[in-house]
Amino acid sequence: MTVVRSVVLGCGAYLPERVLTNAELAAKVDTSDEWIVQRTGIRERHIAAEGEYTSHLATKAAEAALANAGVDAQSIDLIVLATSTPDHTFPATATQVQAALGIHHGVAFDLQAVCSGFVFAVATADNFLRAGSAKRALVIGAETFSRILDWNDRGTCVLFGDGAGAIVLEAQTGWGTSADRGVLTTHLRSDGAHKHKLYVDGGPSTTQTTGHLRMEGREVFKHAVGMITGVIVDAFNASGTSADNVDWFVPHQANKRIIDASAQKLHIAPQKVVMTVDRHGNTSAASIPLALATAVADGRIQKGHLVLLEAMGGGFTWGAALLRW
After folding, report:
1. Catalytic annotation, residues
2. DSSP secondary structure letters along 122-174
3. Segment 267-325, tens digit of pLDDT
4. Of 121, 164, 180, 252, most Cβ neighbours within 10 A?
């Protein structure tokens, strides 16, 4: 029996020029390079320039993905942009990317699931493509988290960075097996009872301000590994695969200790884990596509490889996607 699969045609990324090192942060807040590296694995992160917005980062990543895929922007009829740091309250930042690319047809909208945003966006685009509502999609994760950080809070300001990544998905026919190219399965979860553990203390309806990111780091860490591995097991069961079949594990790049613990619990070998948190920091919805683009560019991820994506973010939200490149 044939089925419709959402196949990755290409990917791309963009990072702002400004690199902020741990040493620079240590000169501003009570921290050190050793402390940050030991607890998070982060050594540096990129920071958007003044006047450089989420839409600008997203557009550059989208252009790189289109070039890598070898397709024209006019062939795109769906743009799903995952972000928690939009240019404006409205319109959707995705529409600004659409305009920048010269696209005047189809549909573009934002999706907000914080650090899980890219996995949620992949699942959303996949459903559109499989339903026949679109034929070719741009799925983007883009963030300027530096704009919502309290730079006096050493527990959060050292963790996050800015960036964007994107993939092009196309509806193609598959055979309905795990050998198909494309998105094989996606699994999404949320539980709003955990809001106070990771949130932004502002918003249009509450404070009429942007607010700052607040986090209970230990609580987030305590829940992360169990939630992540649980949803990944669901993905394996749904696709008839296992950790042994995975060629590359591309997790949300939040914290090296969380990534290591998750891989260990799932029995995924360290050499199969794509890790960019040391260079990018936590770029929220942008972290997975940035890691994907890195691993494709250096030749690790190749056509036919089974790739496992997972993320967890504020809300809490969490999810996993299994796809064959």
Report:
1. 115, 252, 282
2. HHHHHHHHHHTS-SEEEEEEEEEGGGG--TT-HHHHTTB-EEEEEEEEEEEEE
3. 999 999 999 999 999 999 999 999 999 999 999 999 999 999 999 999 999 999 999 99
4. 164
